[in-house]
Amino acid sequence: MLQGQHQHSDFIAVILVYGIIFSEYYAFVFIFLPAFLNKHGHVSYLIGIEFTIIFIFLNFSYIMIQYVKPGYPPKDLAKHYHEKTLEDIKQRTKKMTEKINKHRQRRMQNNIEFHDENDDEIVIKQFYNMVPAILFKYYNQFHTALNVRIQNYQEHIIVKNAINAYQEWIIIVPG
To answer: Which residue ranges run through the membrane (predicted)?
Structure first.
């Protein structure tokens, strides 16, 4: 007898799968193959034999699966697969995070070991090297803003001159 607990729905699933496999086999052997045989001759016999062997092994494998694990695959297979995938991702992320943290700690220790005793002098030099860069940055921002204002003022003067030159053609409606 078969191992495990079998339920009525398991046998219905087996029958449905057999029906699908058999209908595909029937369609191939009795509908596609004769038409193929008329055009291609003896090659279609080899295809028919190959397809029959595949059909037999499919049935045999499904019978063995149902014998070992009845009702397989489970209904919530996708849910289990999704959960397992998430667990794998978490494990890999955890391992990579540990590796990254170890690498950072090693790098920090190396940096601390390589620092001079004159750390204060290095920091002061870096600060004084940064001051001109900061001043130049703000000068550029101020200069850009000033150019925009000058350009707007020039456009304003051009529009005002155009209005004055062609004032007789412009009708101003009081608002």
So the answer is: 12-37, 43-65
